[in-house]
Amino acid sequence: MEDYLRKNFDVEPKRPSDEALMRWRSAVAVVKNPTRRFRMVADLAKRAEDERKRKNLQEKIRVAMYVQKAALQFIDAGNRGRYNLSKEVRDAGFGIEPDEIASFARSHDNKGLEGHGGIAGLARDVSVSLKDGVVSSKIPVRQNVYGLNRYVEKPSKGFWMFFWEALQDLTLIILMISAAVSIGVGIATEGWPKGMYDGLGIILSILLVVMVTAVSDYKQSLQFKELDKEKKNIMVQVTRDGRRQKVSIYDLVVGDIVHLSIGDQVPADGIFISGHSLQVDESSLSGESEPVDISEDKPFLLAGTKVQDGAGC
Fold it and tell me: Which parts pass through the membrane (predicted)?
C-alpha cells in the first residue's frame, strides 16, 4: 500500500510535474472550500495556457525570421549584380563591398558566398590569411572601410531628466501646492515680501530634496552604465599576425579569425571556417531550444548565439 501511495500520489516538494499534480488533485477532488485549500497549488490550467502562448510566440518569431530571411535573399539576389567596388575599397586592397558582406550575413546567402569563391575566395577578397589571420598594422584601414563591431546604443538619460522624474513624487507635489497656497495667503494677509517667506522656504526645501535625489540617481545611472559596459566587454581569442591573442569583441574587425569553444557567445555575424562537433544555441534569438547543426554546408553564424558543444573558428 505504501508503495502504491508513493507511486500514485506522492508530489515532489519542488517543481512537481503536471501529471503528479493532476493525480493529487483527482485524489482530493471532493474537499471543502477547494479555492482556499488549493491556493498554494499551481494553477494547472493557467500554466498550460501560458505555455501555449509562449510556444505560439516562439513559433511566430521563428516564422518571421524565416520570412525575413527569404525576403532578404530575394532582394539580395536582385541586387547582387549591382555591387561595384568603390575607390575607397579598391585603394584599401579589398575586393568586396561592406554592403555585400552584410547581405551574406543577414540572408545566409550561400549562393552569393559561392559566387566569391567560397570561404577561401571571400578571405582573399577581404585580404586575410586563413592561417595567419589579419595583420595588426592594417586594422585601422579595415575599421575605416568596414566599420566597427559596435551597435548604436540608446543615449542615457541626462541629469535634468532625473530632476524632472524626482519632481513627480506625490508628496513633493502636495508640498508645492501647499507652498503656492501659503505664498498667496501670506501676501494677502502680511503683504510683500514678508508674506511669501514661509512658502518660499517650502519651495527651497523641495528644490533641495529634488536636487539631492536627482544627483544620487544620476550617479547610480552612470555607475550602472559603466558596469554594464564592462560586462559586455567580452574577451575572445583571435588569430592575428600568425599567433593567437585575446582581444575585446569591440576591437574585432572584418576578416578576424575568431576561435570558439563551449560556452562562448558568437561576438559578431560570421562564417564557419573549420571545427568539430560545433553546436550553436539560437534560443536567445528565436526561442528554438534545439542546437543548430551549423557546418560547411550552412556556414553562417549569428551574433549573440551561444556555442553548446564542440569548437570552431
Answer: 170-189, 195-215
Condensed to tens digits (0 to 9), the pLDDT of residues 255-291 reads 899 988 887 788 888 888 888 777 877 665 555 555 6
Spatial separation of the C-alpha atoms in residues 5 and 23, rounded to whole Å: 11
The yes or no reply on domain 82-153+233-312 and CATH 2.70.150.10 is yes
Q: Is 102 helix (H, G, I), strand (E, B) or coil?
A: helix
- DSSP 3-state assignment of 292? strand
pLDDT in tens, 138-177: 899 999 998 888 877 777 888 898 899 888 888 888 888 9
Q: Report how far apart, in Å, the C-alpha atoms of 245 and of each of 95, 258, 259, 263 are.
A: 27, 10, 10, 18
Amino acid at 288: E
Q: pTM for the full model?
A: 0.58
What is the amino acid identity at position 9? F
* Beta-sheet strands, E only, within the chain: 235-240, 243-248, 257-259, 270-271, 275-281, 300-301, 306-312
Cell of residue 313, nine digits: 573558428
Rounded CA-CA distance 279/284 in Å is: 14
End-to-end CA distance of the chain: 59
Distances (CA, A) of 87 to 81, 93, 95, 100, 142: 18, 10, 11, 16, 14
**Burial of residue 276, with CB atoms counted within 10 A of its CB: 0-12 exposed, 13-18 middle, 19 or more buried:** exposed
Longest dimension (CA), the chain: 92
Closest of 169, 91, 96, 165 to residue 126, by C-alpha: 96
Residues 6+ apart with CB under 8 A from 214: 159, 162, 163, 165, 166
